[in-house]
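Lab notes, practical 5.
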Amino acid sequence: MPGADTDTDAIEELYARGVTDGLPVVPPTRERVAQAVAASGRDGAELIALVPPNYGRATVEKIAVNAVMAGCRPEYLPVVIAAIDAVCDEAFDLHGVSATTNSPARSGPSFRAT
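Output from the prediction step:
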């Protein structure tokens, strides 16, 4: 398998840098990221959302880099982009959801299914 040793070394290097929690990480090579961006049918510089709480810029390329590292297949990137767009919509209130120590879900005795 060509490149296996190189990928293994890259995975270990990413772990040593602290950019993984110990789970395997696919090295986000330029080629892999370019394939994912191409599969999305969008420009890599296109801004999808500002991500709370610090409102970082989620461009197609940045989303692709993270998706590649997580093992996402290029053809699935449009779904990942749609999910990020949805959770960053103000109606979802990602900032509020990620800033609470309690569950944001409606539950308990006062909850009635409608």
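Observations recorded by the TA: The first strand starts at residue 47 and ends at 51. The helical segments are 4-16, 30-40, 60-69, 77-87, 94-98.
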